[in-house]
Design goal:
The complex is a heterodimer of chains A (166) and B (1194).
Chain A lengths: L4 H31 L11 H17 L10 H17 L3 H19 L12 H4 L2 H35 L1
Helix pairs in contact in A: 1-3, 1-6, 3-4
Chain B lengths: L1 H15 L3 H6 L30 H4 L21 H13 L6 H5 L3 H10 L1 H5 L14 H18 L5 H10 L31 H14 L6 H12 L10 H5 L4 H11 L2 H10 L12 H20 L1 H15 L10 H20 L18 H4 L1 H5 L29 H11 L6 H13 L9 E3 L21 H6 L6 E3 L4 E2 L2 H7 L4 E4 L10 E3 L18 E4 L2 E3 L6 E3 L2 H4 E2 L4 E2 L6 H4 L2 E5 L13 E7 L2 H6 L1 H12 L10 E7 L3 E5 L8 E5 L14 E3 L4 H14 L10 H12 L4 E7 L34 H11 L2 E7 L7 H4 L1 H4 L5 E3 L9 H16 L3 E10 L3 E7 L3 E4 L2 E7 L5 E7 L8 E12 L4 E13 L2 H6 L3 H18 L2 H22 L9 E3 L5 H9 L12 H13 L2 H8 L2 E4 L9 E3 L2 E3 L4 E2 L11 E5 L3 E6 L5 H8 L20 H15 L6 E6 L5 H5 L13 H13 L1
Parallel strand pairs in B: 3-26, 5-11, 12-13, 12-17, 17-18, 18-19, 33-34
Antiparallel strand pairs in B: 1-27, 2-4, 4-24, 6-7, 7-8, 9-10, 11-26, 13-14, 13-16, 14-15, 20-23, 20-25, 21-24, 22-23, 25-26, 28-31, 28-32, 29-30, 32-33
The chains are: A mainly alpha (166), B alpha+beta (1194).
Chain lengths: 166, 1194
């Protein structure tokens, strides 16, 4: 029973993992909102609705942008996850690190491989409504949610294990 | 874990093996580019195109069968002898082209329909006939049809559709009953096209004819045909003609008998009138009696179907016998015809037991029974009844047995069956059994005939390639949407995604939704009938379960027929929902009620943003623009609320106060370009009519105002921001004229082009935008219903790829005039002038949205064109113009096994320039097939190529050009290898393609040599980007000319096979293949590249031609730069000019004509379009085929 660095890492990860779960859920909701625009079918043709809808899409896209002063969701998520990896590297928790490395690489790839011209947005308002993109993003968000949930329990287990075993 | 692990490899895979075809086929699996943030988005620019513009008022009209208008060029289709004979003999009998279908149609019922529909435009000028539905014997009909039409003409005379409808409304037309405003048809574009050999009524003739083949496949000889015809045309005047019309409605008999008798008589009519409080306009009352008369006939007809069932079986057996020959070189035994009927009879039983009253469907066939029955057995004894399934419209299904299968399988077998199957579109429970039957038909249609590509030298047909006709039954075919507006790459939709993937063909739609139409039914109705769950508009392909309910053909929900819909105001009849024009036409336009608008419809607002820097003044476009505007000021589409404004800019922004009351225009200069503001809140956009004098003053002064400017900078970005501020309260159209790279303020751009890289074979960079300023601005504009149209008139690189974004995402259009100069380059100046004329006067729709719906099981994923995608199936179009085309990629999400038909519907909701909310609805219906061979049989190669081109543009922007080129080649390799693997009996060393795909490699090669995708040839970046923009937004017809130009020999134009347009004889020379081997020094050739015409004059060209047509004594005296043909008083000059004018009229972008002498330096321009030839950078066609073959064998 000792409070090692590894145990600390796991505790911190546990808290941050909850935040990541929140991000993932937020993504899912955002994409769902993008996908379903069926509040009132007759309203679809309205020019007024057009503006509102465009705003909505842009708002969501901007929230999902990579770098921003406020309300950016993508970068915090990526950085929190990278922080995990660094911590586990320091704590020499190789197995946990190994589990996280693929996602880390994916995040790097995602971050540096911009969709289009604009360097700022991870999601391009004109492109995001493409059904392919949208369903991809949705799947991505669901997968991440599952991954974070599993890792949440994994960290919980590991934290207790390290606390108990040492 | 799966996301991180799975996705990157997928993207990588897509990159390593680029496959556009695969991308389409497997949906998400390989969308253009790397997976997660794929391509640059579904927004591109559209290139509008002025030419066949008719007056606004004319384009709204009642169609009398609008399919009728398409076939402009059907003269010399590759008919083979029998067909030709048949047709000529056949049509000579017909007196007037419009009437010709009459003789063609066998089923008298159908004949009636046409009897009414077709003659109408010619006879009365206004054609409300179609509103009448089809109910009565021909003789009656004619009366009943023409009467109301004349009454309508009187009542709503004049071309003003709007006034017509509004007047009707103001008369207090019953609120519950739909009113059909009818406008006169003045057939502007195809006024009097007559074909000497094949009349204009062709498509119908063929289609009807086809159906006939299906039911009574007959031997091939002429005699039998003519006898057939006479025999069949006879029954038509018989008093009880078959209720063919029901057929169209997919079955109505179930309810019709009782209800008709109730509703038919005039009493019902009276009730109705009473119900509606006597508000019918008196003029409309005239037709009442005749309609009532005609109504009584259907009542008697309806009694027939039950009686006629034995006849059905015989008639059907004839059909089935023809369509079910199980093996290839096999005579269709009489035995077969005996056995088959039983099966079909079973079907029939099933049908009749099923709820939705299919019985009447077969019923029409029995009626002509006296005639067809005797002839019906004939086909069963004939060895090769193939051929007439699709006489001319679809070369694919044509005669001519496959050389490899010389026994020949009867193609009617193929087509016939499908037709039968599709008579029951709504009935899912049946389709599977029918589908099973369709598998039995081993018949091989002409479009499946294997073609050995490497050996067939003349693969290009000499006449324009026509769209294949979906293999539907005759009524559906007749009702189906015109291929000019709506095309699918596969006219036979595969049943499952697996099948589609196996076929390796792209699946998608090509749309031209706002096309100028000569005949369009416009419907004013208080309730627009739509499906309650999926909001589909009622269309010809829904099924009426009984009189009160209809079943949606997209989501299969059963909906109620509203009370109002029961009444057909045109025939003044009640209880015939299936005869309403909505259900009779696949292209209709509704005038929407206030439900469809949140704010009052916006007025037409036009803002011109003009570059007046030194460069612009030097180029001299202002004179041309102001002149065109002055000429067309009164023709700008709009009403009394139309507003107009001008902004000019160099390094500062100049606004013009044109408020009525000022003595002269007042210029307001804003020099703070970092924070643009509007100098006055109003009076910058002024009412066109109130301030017309001031506007004219300004336009007269503008060209000279900046002549001495020394300002070279261009603050385009701030000017656009100002324009956005000016437009945002109303929305409208911003036309931007720019002549150089924007160099000041927001959105400034640097030159990115490296001239040394122009002919690089490796990397082409900078295809994407340099900044997202223009995109953001366009999105803002789109949100405020403002479209930005860009006219780029530059002599140097201007970074079109960045500037184009302003139009791409705001649904604008892009015009590009490289090296524009008003005096040094007169051809470009003239082009600008012509295109401006078209641009300013063409129809325009504001604050539009377009929704595309498709049958459950299909889903759309990627859109191409200029727009902003607002929802997964909703495109936001700030403006819509008649020259905008769109493309959509489809994937099959669920198996379509339980349905035999799929439908696609686009609904375009827009505000017309007169301030009306209108909805234009197109519906396309296609059969579902379950075998790979059928999928190949139905390929529309032109549509496929256009879709591939769109995908390749996305791919080259998102990844790289070479990647896109590889993907194009892979598309051919994949589809051909997939095909050859299905054809087992052919040795794999030869390159074969189904006949439907035989042009596929040629077109792909043409794409690879197109400006957009070529490498190794010097191509300016802006030219390349512009070509890409055009690919994205041009409608299919124009895009095909751009991809694969047409070459004609014009020094020996003959009147043989010529068509007559507007009393002018237009010769129709055969299309030559694009190869230098076709050029002879003795000849002169015309190449039609869409936006450019070249006339190449050979060195030893006949002097008489040079003298008669070009106006010079001999070859040597022809000037190097010649862009006009003189109007000479010689026959050959007249012919040539009428031919060129005819070609020109058919397109929106005014083409420039260059006369190229054989030895002039300009001939390289001409020769680079000869795509079948080898260039130093690219394969010849034959080499390309060998390359593909190599790839397949690998």
């Amino acid at each position: 029973m000792a409070f090692t660095f590894a145990a600390f890492c796991y505790m911190l990860s546990l808290v941050l993992c909850a935040a990541l779960i929140f991000f993932a859920i937020w993504h899912i909701i955002a994409f769902d909102e993008l996908r379903t625009d069926f509040k009132s079918p007759i309203d679809q043709g309205n020019p007024g609705h057009a503006r509102e809808r465009l705003r909505n899409i842009e708002r969501i896209c901007f929230l999902l942008r990579k770098v921003s002063a406020r309300a950016a969701l993508v970068l915090p998520e990526y950085s929190i996850h990278s922080l995990f990896c660094i911590m586990f590297l320091c704590a020499q928790e190789w197995l946990t690190l190994g589990l996280n490395v693929p996602l880390l690489f994916y995040h790097f790839w995602r971050y540096f491989h911009c969709p289009a011209d604009s360097s700022e947005l991870a999601y391009d308002p004109p492109a995001v409504m493409n059904a392919d993109t949208l369903s991809y993003c949705q799947k991505e968000a669901w997968c991440k949610l599952a991954f974070y949930l599993l890792s949440f329990f994994y960290y919980l287990y590991c934290m207790i294990y390290t606390l108990v075993s040492s | 874990m799966s996301a991180p692990a799975g996705s990157p490899p997928r993207a990588a895979g897509a990159r390593s093996q680029p496959k556009l075809g695969g991308a389409a086929a497997s949906g998400a699996a390989a969308g253009p580019g790397p997976a997660p943030p794929p391509q640059n988005g579904p927004a591109q620019n559209q290139m509008p195109v002025p030419s066949a513009y008719e007056l606004y008022s004319q384009s709204y009209s009642i169609p009398s069968g609008h399919h009728f208008q398409g076939p402009g060029k059907m003269t010399s289709l590759p008919l083979d002898g029998q067909c030709g004979d048949y047709y000529s003999g056949f049509y000579t009998a017909s007196t007037q082209n419009a009437v010709t279908p009459k003789t063609t149609h066998q089923p008298p019922g159908a004949e009636q329909v046409y009897g009414r529909l077709l003659p109408a435009p010619h006879s009365a000028g206004s054609t409300p006939e179609c509103f009448q539905g089809a109910a009565s014997p021909a003789s009656h009909l004619y009366v009943s049809a023409s009467q109301p039409s004349s009454s309508f003409v009187n009542h709503y005379s004049g071309p003003a559709m709007y006034s017509a409808s509004s007047s009707a409304v103001s008369q207090g037309f019953p609120s519950t009953c739909g009113h059909y405003a009818v406008s006169t048809v003045s057939n502007a574009v195809y006024p009097s096209v007559s074909y000497p050999s094949l009349p204009a009524g062709e498509p119908y003739g063929q289609q009807m004819f086809t159906s006939q083949n299906a039911s009574t496949v007959r031997p091939v000889r002429d005699n039998s045909f003519s006898s057939q015809n006479t025999a069949l045309s006879r029954p038509s005047p018989l008093p009880p003609p078959p209720p063919q019309q029901y057929h169209q409605q997919h079955s109505l008999s179930g309810y019709s008998i009782p209800s008709w008798s109730a509703s038919g008589p005039p009493s019902a009519q009276d009730n109705l009138i009473r119900n509606h409080a006597g508000s019918l306009p008196p003029a409309n009352n005239n037709p009442t009696n005749t309609v009532a008369d005609s109504l009584s006939c259907p009542v008697t007809q309806n009694v027939q179907p039950p009686k006629s069932s034995p006849v059905v079986s015989t008639a059907v057996s004839a059909a089935s016998s023809a369509r079910l020959p199980p093996t290839a070189n096999h005579l269709v035994e009489p035995v077969a015809s005996v056995t088959q009927p039983s099966e079909l009879l079973q079907q029939k039983d099933m049908l009749s037991s099923s709820a939705s009253s299919p019985a009447p469907d077969p019923a029409p066939e029995p009626d002509p029974s006296p005639a067809p029955v005797p002839t019906a057995p004939q086909p069963s004894k004939v060895a090769k009844p193939f051929g007439y399934g699709y006489p001319t419209l679809q070369p694919g299904y044509q005669n001519a047995a496959a050389p490899l299968h010389s026994g020949g399988q009867p193609s009617p077998g193929y087509s016939g069956f499908q037709q039968y199957a599709q008579q029951y579109p709504g009935m899912n429970q049946l389709s599977s059994s029918l589908g099973g039957l369709s598998l039995q038909s081993a018949a091989q249609p002409e479009s499946l005939r294997p073609v050995n590509l490497t050996q067939e030298r003349n693969i290009l047909p000499v006449t324009p390639v026509l769209a294949p006709v979906p293999n539907l039954n005759l009524e559906l075919k007749k009702l189906n949407c015109s291929p000019d507006s709506f095309r699918c790459t596969l006219t036979n939709i595969p049943q499952t995604q697996a099948l589609l993937t196996k076929a390796k063909l792209p699946l998608g739609l090509l749309l031209h939704p706002f096309r100028d139409l000569t005949q369009l039914p416009v419907i004013t109705s208080n309730t627009i009938v739509r499906c309650r769950s999926c909001r589909t508009y009622i269309n010809p392909f829904v099924s009426f379960i009984d009189q009160r309910r209809w079943k949606c053909n997209l989501c299969y929900r059963v909906n109620d027929v509203p009370e109002e819909f029961m009444y057909n105001p045109l025939t003044r009849s009640y209880g015939e929902p299936h005869k309403r024009p909505e259900v009779q036409n696949s292209t209709v336009e509704f005038i929407a009620s206030s439900d469809y608008m949140l704010r009052p419809p916006q007025p037409a607002v036009y803002l011109f943003v003009l570059d007046v820097s030194h460069n612009a003044v030097e180029a001299g476009y202002l004179t041309i623009l102001c002149q065109s505007l002055l000429e067309n000021l009164d023709k700008l589409p709009g009403d009394s609320r139309t507003r107009i404004g001008f902004v000019t800019f160099d390094s500062t922004i100049h606004f013009y106060n044109l408020q009525d009351g000022l003595s002269q225009p007042q210029m307001l200069i804003v020099s703070d370009i970092d924070d643009v503001f509007l100098p006055t809140p109003d009076s910058l956009l002024v009412n066109l009519h109130e301030s017309k004098e001031l506007i004219k003053d300004l336009l007269n002064a503008l060209p000279n105002m900046f002549t001495n400017t020394r300002e070279t900078h261009s603050a385009l970005g701030p000017a656009l921001q100002a324009a956005f501020k000016l437009m945002s309260p109303t929305g409208g159209r911003v036309s931007v004229f720019q002549t150089q790279l924007p160099s000041l303020g927001a959105g400034l751009l640097q030159s990115r082009e490296d001239p040394n890289q122009r002919s690089s074979t490796k990397v082409v960079q900078h295809l994407g935008p340099a900044t997202d300023f223009y995109k953001k601005l366009a999105l803002d504009c789109s949100g405020q219903q403002t479209a930005v149209d860009l006219f780029l008139l530059s002599s140097q690189y201007s970074d079109l790829s960045s500037l184009a974004c302003m139009s791409k995402y705001s649904a604008g259009c892009i015009y590009y005039y490289p090296s524009f100069h008003s005096t040094h380059n007169p051809s470009q100046a003239e082009k600008l002038q012509n295109e401006l004329k078209r641009y300013l006067t063409r129809k325009i729709g504001f604050e539009a949205v377009m929704r595309i719906r498709c049958t459950k099981g299909l889903s759309m994923h990627t859109f191409h064109g200029n727009f902003f995608v607002r929802s997964t199936d909703l495109l936001s179009l700030a403006n819509i113009n008649p020259d905008a085309g769109f493309a959509v990629q489809l994937s099959i999400e669920e198996s379509l096994a339980d349905t035999s038909l799929v439908c696609f519907q686009t609904a375009l909701l827009y505000t017309s320039s007169k301030g009306e909310r209108r909805i234009r609805v197109h519906t396309l219906c296609l059969p579902v097939v379950s075998s790979l061979a059928d999928v190949y049989a139905g390929v529309d190669v032109q549509a496929a190529i256009c879709l591939l081109a769109n995908m390749a543009v996305d791919r080259s922007i998102s990844t790289s050009l070479s990647d896109a080129r590889d993907a194009l080649v892979n598309a051919v390799v994949d589809s051909l290898s997939a095909y050859s693997s299905t054809v087992s009996n052919i040795q794999h060393s030869v390159l074969i393609a189904p006949s439907s795909l035989k042009l596929f490699p040629l077109y792909v090669l043409a794409l690879l040599k197109q400006k957009a995708f070529r490498t190794g040839t010097s191509t300016r970046l802006d030219d390349r980007v512009y070509a890409m923009c055009q690919i994205k937004c041009q409608p299919l017809v124009h895009l095909m000319k751009m991809i694969h130009p047409n070459l004609y020999r014009i020094d020996r134009l003959m009147d043989e096979g010529a068509i007559h347009v507007n009393d002018r004889v237009v010769p129709q020379p055969p299309i030559q293949k694009l190869s230098a081997e076709k050029l002879t020094r003795e000849g002169a050739f015309l190449m039609d590249c869409g936006c450019v015409f070249y006339i190449w004059v050979g060195k030893s060209c006949d002097n008489t031609f040079i003298e008669d047509v070009l106006g010079y004594p001999n070859f040597a005296s022809i000037p190097q730069k010649m862009t006009h043909l003189p109007e000479l008083d010689t026959l050959s000059s007249e012919r040539t000019i009428s031919f060129i004018t005819w070609l020109r009229d058919s397109r929106p972008l005014s083409p420039v004509l260059y006369v190229v002498k054989d030895e002039s330096p300009a001939k390289t321009e001409f020769f680079q379009h000869l795509i079948e030839d080898r260039t130093e950078a690219a394969f010849s066609y034959y080499e390309f085929l060998l390359h593909i073959q190599q790839q397949i064998c690998k």
